[in-house]
Amino acid sequence: MTGPRPTGDRLGRLLNLVPYLLARPGILVSEAAADFGVTEKTLREDLELLWVCGLPGYGPGDLIDMALDDTTVTISHDAGIDRPLRLTQDEALALVVALRMLAETPGTGNRDVIERALAKIETAAGDQADAPVEVRLPGNEKRLDEFRAVVERGHALRMTYYTAARDETTERVVDPMRMVMVDGRAYLEAWCRRAEGTRLFRVDRVDAYEELDEPSLPPEEAVPHDVSEGVFRPGPELQLVTLRVGRGSRWITEYYPVEEVTRSGDEWVVTMRVTDLGWAQRLLLGLGPDVTVLGPPELLTRIHDQATAALDQYSTPGR
After folding, report:
1. Do both 261 and 284 map to the same domain?
2. Which residues contact 132 (CB under 8 A, 6 or more apart)?
């Protein structure tokens, strides 16, 4: 498997799969794949993902279960997906805030659809959806207009920028080149004098900025990125990370670009490229014992050292 499939298409298919299969126990996998317009291999991958979906708790009786063999599939436990959804106050509020944030995101397509869905949920939730929360993203339209104006005026920019991959905030002076929109997010493409290279800066991660009087003068080697297939384009120059992944963490193969997935029973061996081992270290520590790092050795050492340091904190008296 190379790279993720369109998330929206798969989510819609997964939401339809369970009621479809409940109404057709023992259906041929090939027939179900034909009805959904996908290959049999893709449908089997969807069914494997459904195995780790269900209700909070994620133990026996909480997850969707099925009988899947070489030719047929039958849902044996639907984990309550056939019952009408009842949102708690916290769930209703979280969903409303998420939709408000999505509606505020610059470049989001089908904004009218989002607003109609938000209105329906707010109406259904009633007082549960009332909250003193006003969503405003840092990368709003006003900021985008200001950045576009800086690009048009041809001025350099000083900014404070948060780099999520390294979990650090830095001060930079950049020579703006253009504004681009990728997957609903706004980016400033510029020559970074600190990194001495062309970089894409997410507008919502710019903490502060100041337009300078000096002109923007990107050097000749400042070549724009090809973002036709997304911002992250893993290549052989990046670090290769190899993981043994349990069932509960297979979702990372959908959320992050991966180079290869080798299946062996309930465990998968996954290889992926990363720009920074520090980012991989934080991700994998958060996944816990469901993921085992097979390489590179430097990443193994990093995770071992950080885990050991954390355990030492527990054994220190007075802490």
Report:
1. yes
2. none
